[in-house]
Amino acid sequence: MIRERKRALVGVVGGILLANTGSYIWFPVLVATLGGSDSGFWAGVVMCMTYVGRLLATFCYEGVAARAGVRGGVFLGTALEAVALGLMGFTDGVLAYSVLAFFIGFGSGTSFPGLKNVLVSFPEDERPKAFSAFQMAGQVGLFGGALLGAVLADVELRTLFTVVFVFFTGFCLITSALIPRGGFGGAPDAADGRVPLFSLTAFKGIEVRGATRYFLLSAAFWFLSLGFVVGIPLHMDEYVPGWAPSAPFWITGLSILVLQYPLFKLFNKRFSPGAVMAVGLAGMTVAFLAFGAGRTAPWVVVGCLTVVLGEILFVPSFDLWIARRVPEDRLARAMGAMHFFRSAGNMAGSLAAGILFDLSRSLGVAGGNWYVAALLAAGCALACLSGRHSGTATGTDAAGVDVTENDVTQSEEAVRENV
C-alpha cells in the first residue's frame, strides 16, 4: 500500500507539473494576441469562459467520480482539456475560442478535484508532505511554462497549441497510469442512482452565518488576482512589446518559489491573519500603481516582485482567518463557500480586466485600469485591518460562542485537510 501511494503521488505531482507548464505556455500568448487583434474585452471573455466551465464542473464532479471513479474522473477531465486545447490551434475567432475555453475549464474543474481527493485519501501523517509536493510542483510548472511561453511567443498558434496538447496528453497518461481508480478511500457508489450526475447541492454552502463578508473579501482578492493574470499580457503587448507576454509570470513564479515559505513564516509569527492579509493587499496596491504609473519594463519587474505578496500572504492567511471564525461543524460548508466566491471573483476579474484595459485606452488615460485595481486593493487592505482582531486565537465564533485555543487548532487542521 505504501508503494501504491508513492506511485500515486508521483502521478499527481507529475500531472500538476505538466498541467501548469502547459497552461502558462498558452494563455498569456492567446490573451495578448486577442488583445491586439480584437480587444481586451474579448480576451477577458475567453478567459472568463474557462472559469465558467470550472464553476459548472463543481456541480458535476461528485456524479462523475461516482460513476467513473477518481481515476476515471481525472482521465475524462484531462482528456477533455487536452482535446479542447489541441483544437484551439486549428480554429479562429472569439466565439470558437470561448466555446473551447469553456471545455478547457470544465475539464480542469473535473480533474483538479480528483487529484486533491487522491491526496486527501492519504493517511493523515503523509498529507502535509504530499500537499507540499503538490504545491511546489504547481509553482515549478508555472515558472517553466512561462519560460517556454516566452520561447514560443512568436510561433504560429497552431504550433503553440500542438506543444500544449502534448503536455496535457502527458498529464492525462501519467495520472491515469499511476493513481488508483478510487483513490485510497473509495468512491461513491452510483449504481443505485443515489448520486445524480448534476447537482446544485454545492449552493448550500454559499451562506455561512457570520462569515459572508469575509468571503466577499476573498472574491475581491481573486477579482484583483485575475485582473493581473489577464491584464498583464495585454499590458505587455501594448507597452513592453520587446518582452514576451509570459515574462511577468516567470518573474512571479520564481519569486513565489523563493519567498513563499520564509516570508509567510516571518509575518505569521508576528501578526494576526487580518494584518498579514492587509500587507499582502498593500503589496498588490504598490504593484498596480507601478504598472499604471511606470508602464516600462523596469516598472513591470517592480510590480511583479510586489504583486506576489498577495499570493504569498493573503491566501494562506485567509484560510487561517476562516478557521478562527467558522466553527468546526460548519467548515465543510465554508469550503464550498470559499470555492464559489473564488470562482465568482475569477470570472468577474477576467471580464473587468479586459473592459478596463479598453476603457483606459479609449479615454486616453494610460494605466487607468491599474489605478482602479490599486484603489480596490487599498480598500480591501483597510477592510482587513479593520477586522484584524477577529483573527485572534481566542474570541467568539459567528454565533457568539466562545472559541478556545484548542478549537482554533482543530479548525486550522480541518482547513489544511480541505485545501
What count of helical segments does DSSP give? 13
Contiguous runs where pLDDT drops below 50 for at least 5 residues: 186-192, 391-419
Biggest sheet details: 2 strands, antiparallel
Report how far the terminal alpha carbons are from each other: 24 Å
Overall mean confidence score, pLDDT: 82
List the helices and strands in order.
HHHHHHHHHHHHEEH
Strand order of the largest sheet: 1-2
Transmembrane segments: 7-27, 39-61, 136-153, 159-179, 214-235, 247-264, 271-293, 299-322, 368-385
Keywords: Cell membrane, Membrane, Transmembrane, Transmembrane helix, Transport
Membrane topology: Multi-pass membrane protein
GO molecular function: transmembrane transporter activity
Notes on the structure:
With 419 residues, this protein is mostly helical. Strands 1-2 form a two-stranded antiparallel sheet. Helix content is 77%, strand content 1%. The two termini are 24 Å apart. The chain crosses the membrane at residues 7-27, 39-61, 136-153, 159-179, 214-235, 247-264, 271-293, 299-322, 368-385. It holds the Pfam family MFS_1. It is found in: Cell membrane.
